[in-house]
Design goal:
- The complex is a heterodimer of chains A (446) and B (258).
- Chain A has one domain (81-123, 170-442): 7 Propeller (Methylamine Dehydrogenase, Chain H).
- Chain A contains two helices and 32 strands.
- Chain A has helices spanning 281-285, 332-337, and strands at 10-12, 28-33, 39-44, 48-54, 70-77, 82-84, 89-91, 97-100, 108-113, 118-131, 155-171, 181-184, 190-194, 198-203, 211-215, 228-233, 240-245, 250-254, 266-268, 289-292, 298-302, 306-311, 320-323, 347-349, 355-359, 364-369, 375-379, 396-397, 407-408, 420-423, 429-434, 437-443.
- In chain A, a hairpin with a 5-residue loop joins strand 12 (181-184) and strand 13.
- With 258 residues, chain B is mainly alpha-helical.
- Chain B has a domain at 18-77.
- Chain B contains ten helices and no strands.
- Chain B starts with 9 loop residues before the first helix and ends with a helix.
- The chains are: A mainly beta (446), B mainly alpha (258).
- Chains A and B meet through helix 2 of A and helix 1, helix 2, helix 3, helix 5 and helix 6 of B.
- Chain A: This is Serine/threonine-protein phosphatase 2A 55 kDa regulatory subunit B.
- Chain A: Belongs to the phosphatase 2A regulatory subunit B family.
- Chain A: Keywords: Repeat, WD repeat.
- Chain A: It comes from Taeniopygia guttata (Zebra finch).
Chain lengths: 446, 258
């Protein structure tokens, strides 16, 4: 990706801000491109999934800069609120994660999950319908057979495109604790779902059974000191997966060694820096997201203040550490008090694994170029970017004199957090979820 | 009764907490024990709030509980270095209190609070263990390989924690026996109430008396809440509900040593 010294040339093309009002149910809780980047799925707090599809690119002389824009393709209610009568608990319908399956036929398949139940959805198009039945009217009313004198063959006629989403599988009742991750295996036959203490392996065809592959629940709950925070399969090796913990550690497991992968094959942990020690050290070391690189050689982890890149072959420390918002280190007590310290930010790789991106507060998000070591802070907000405008880099002023365009740490809006972002698998297109708005940014042509 | 007359309103408390946490962040002048006490109070407040929720967030509870344990361990190591609980150490923890109270009873409550905290954490984590989780725990105590390598300077040791927790339960176990034996004779209700799970009602009942958490007042309330976890018989829950006032006086007498 070409980068100027001072600014990053990214144009913003606005998604038609869908007619969502500012309600809590519309807070976007997950964003995911499919494997080709043609589709973009978002899940929200109200249990809905909205899929956007990229327009076919029209290369015409009139509009040389027109790149395919994303329009709404399908909307459906994935999960409903449920009530667990046994425990008198309400199960939230919020979609925690969406993961696409690779496309194998004309239909699209995705997994969506809330706290307790994973569902496999099939999204398919219908643009033809049969007409000319013998025994039925066009309205569907049955005809009297004795009145039929002529037989005809029904023909398929085009109709308006209809996109329908149907639930094909429901994987329920396998998790006592809240599901935080799902990951499709590279064999495309299995996937895993992880909650706070356990990870289960499923076969897509079988909904009433799953294998428990990780269980860190202690016999005595009073001894619990660590929970699972994220998990992912290796992109190429179907026997390998990683999971991260609230203590800032990552474990890589090989399913070939044992049925229950409680013994890790590799254990990644960075020794603590004694100069940065505080009461909140453990809390900020909790890993909120873990992602394999597309190559499968690296993993990236996000904790509260940093993003780290680890080489799978080196367990004792990460190979790269990037400060996302180190200016918050001196505000940890206030952030603990208002619970912001528990916010779970995600992180993403670009298609070539050269740039990583993650979110921050005040609707800021950060990108780090691993090769040039340059980084940029951008803002996803309506006021500051018009369609087709180039995003201006932002800067947070830590102390001393504040320059004109800078924003001071105390002016940051901590209610505007960017937790979920996604990067197109091959192109420089990013999707950024800012509370209940979705922003899609594309790299500028020329 | 001791804690009741000197309550602060919750809103005042929250305001003072907000002021304190920004003071913590901005000022380097705050003495370390005061900072530590502040963090500890915040942690205990949060745990208390979570306990009132129908479904507390396990991830957060574990993180906060670990922080409390860490602070507790630090305080314990410091108090081990100062053999007599008098003079400087106590003065410092005194000035950490949100109210300035010179009562000697308060001092002794602060000393007991370590074990209370352990029991508080234990009871909270135990409550998080859903009864309906049928699948048997296939992994028991983590093996040496799986045990994360603790950095040396945290001072946390799992074995010590377990000892602490067991010690705490033993402490309260003996309390429970000594305090309730006289009542057991009066009430022959064990059989009737054995299979009724009143844990939900326990927390509901205990909530009203729990006012703005400052650790001494928490210390007095925690023994009540840990009784259900120490003794599985639900009959005692009902006993405690009826007799907590006199229990508390009884506990006070024991603590003061009269």
């Amino acid at each position: 990706m070409e980068e100027d010294a001072e600014t990053r040339k990214i144009s913003s093309s606005f998604l038609r801000d869908h007619s969502y009002a500012t309600e809590a149910a519309d807070i976007i809780s997950t964003v995911e491109f499919n494997h080709t980047g043609e589709l973009l799925a978002t899940g929200d707090k109200g249990g809905r999934v909205v899929i956007f599809q990229r327009e076919q690119e029209v290369k015409s002389k009139n509009q040389p800069h027109r790149r395919g824009e994303y329009n709404v393709y399908s909307t459906f209610q994935s999960h409903e609120p449920e009530f667990d009568y046994l425990k008198s608990l309400e199960i939230e319908e919020k979609i925690n994660k969406i993961r696409w399956l690779p496309q194998q036929n004309a239909a699209y398949f995705l997994l969506s999950t809330n706290d307790k139940t994973v569902k496999l959805w099939k999204v398919s198009e219908r643009d033809k319908r049969p007409e000319g039945y013998n025994l039925k009217d066009e309205d569907g009313r049955l005809r009297d057979p004795s009145m039929i004198t002529v037989l005809r063959v029904p023909v398929l006629r085009p109709m308006d495109l209809m996109v329908e989403a149907t639930p094909r599988r429901v994987f329920a009742n396998a998790h006592t604790y809240h599901i935080n991750s799902i990951s499709v295996n590279s064999d495309y036959e299995t996937y895993m779902s992880a909650d706070d203490l356990r990870i289960n392996l499923w076969n897509f065809e079988i909904t009433n059974q799953s294998f428990n592959i990780v269980d860190i629940k202690p016999a005595n709950m009073e001894e619990l000191t660590e929970v699972i925070t994220a998990a992912e399969f290796h992109p190429h090796h179907c026997n390998t997966f990683v999971y991260s913990s609230s203590k800032g550690t990552i474990r890589l497991c090989d399913m070939r060694t044992a049925a229950l992968c409680d013994r890790h094959a590799k254990f990644f942990e960075e020794p603590e820096d004694p100069s940065n020690r505080s009461f909140f050290s453990e809390i900020i070391s909790s890993i909120s997201d873990v992602k394999f690189s597309h190559s499968g050689r690296y993993i990236m982890t996000r904790d509260y203040l940093t993003v780290k890149v680890w080489d799978l072959n080196m367990e004792n420390r990460p190979i790269e550490t990037y400060q996302v918002h180190d200016y918050l280190r001196s505000k940890l007590c206030s952030l603990y008090e208002n619970d912001c310290i528990f916010d779970k930010f995600e992180c993403v790789w670009n298609g070539s694994d050269s740039v990583i991106m993650t979110g921050s507060y005040n609707n800021f998000f950060r990108m780090f170029d691993r090769n040039t070591k340059r980084d940029v802070t951008l803002e996803a907000s309506r006021e500051n970017s018009k369609p087709r405008a180039i995003l201006k880099p932002r800067k947070v002023c830590v102390g001393g004199k504040r320059r004109k365009d800078e924003i001071s740490v105390d002016s940051l809006d901590f209610s505007k957090k960017i937790l979920h972002t996604a990067w197109h698998p091959s192109e420089n297109i990013i999707a950024v979820a800012a509370t209940n708005n979705l922003y899609i940014f594309q790299d500028k042509v020329n | 009764m001791l804690g009741r007359g000197l309550k602060r309103k919750l809103s005042d408390y929250e305001e003072s907490m907000a002021g304190l946490s920004s003071a913590f962040d901005s000022s380097r002048g705050l003495p370390y024990p005061l900072k530590r006490q502040l963090v500890l109070n915040m942690c205990l407040t949060k745990l208390q709030t979570y306990k009132m929720l129908v479904e507390p967030n396990l991830h957060r509870s574990v993180l906060i509980a670990n922080t409390v344990r860490q602070i507790q361990e630090e305080m314990r190591q410091e108090s081990n270095q100062q053999p007599l609980p008098s003079g400087v150490g106590q003065q410092e923890s005194h000035c950490c209190d949100l109210r300035s109270v010179e009562d000697p009873i308060e001092n002794s409550l602060l000393i007991v609070s370590d074990d209370d905290m352990s029991s508080a954490i234990s009871s909270i984590l135990k409550d998080l263990d859903f009864v309906e989780d049928i699948s048997p725990p296939t992994c028991l105590v983590p093996t040496g390989d799986d045990q994360p390598k603790f950095p040396e300077n945290t001072g946390l040791k799992l074995e010590d924690d377990r000892q602490d927790l067991k010690g705490a339960e033993c402490v309260f176990g003996s309390f429970e026996i000594s305090n309730s034996t006289s009542y057991l004779k009066d009430l022959a209700i064990d059989d009737i109430f054995e299979d009724i799970d009143t844990s939900m009602y326990d927390s509901d009942f205990c909530c009203p008396p729990l006012m703005p958490p400052r650790s001494p007042s928490l210390a007095t309330e925690e023994p009540l809440k840990t009784f259900p976890s120490c003794n599985s018989s639900s009959a005692n829950n009902i006993q405690i509900c009826r007799t907590d006032l006199s229990e508390l006086d009884h506990i006070m007498e024991i603590l003061v040593g009269s």
